[in-house]
Amino acid sequence: MRWTACIVSALSAAVCEETGFRGTMQQPIELRHSPTIAVLISSAMFTLVHLNKDWALVGMVPIVFGAGLLLGALAQVSGTLIFGIIGHTIMDIGLFGYWWTQIAGTFAQRPISESGMDQAFGIECAALGLLLTATLISIAQLRKLRVLAKA
To answer: How far is residue 100 CA from its own chain's centroid?
Structure first.
């Protein structure tokens, strides 16, 4: 049941947040000002809304803001919310799975500043780097396709 709750919650959060932040908020700002300003504003608001949780530490601001930038750029270059909804859902399934199912253990682990880097940390950093690179390449390719389609 916990995994069902993770998946359903992740999907509903993704649909609601992408529709609200990227569709209802970002798109009109893009039309009035510029895509860059629209992505920055929607990402800032996305960050503010997510900093009301117990885990909301100053260190989370760049992570949440960065996710908002990626999702905003994805919506802007693709011209659709579908890719952002899929990405947001996958991201939230991972987060909710971590928090709700204890698949990653408990929050009793010591911070890396105390324990040092281990192999798991290196693997996770490498995976993050690869996935971030793939996302940025995909956004760039979508931008090129959109420009070609307009020409």
So the answer is: 19
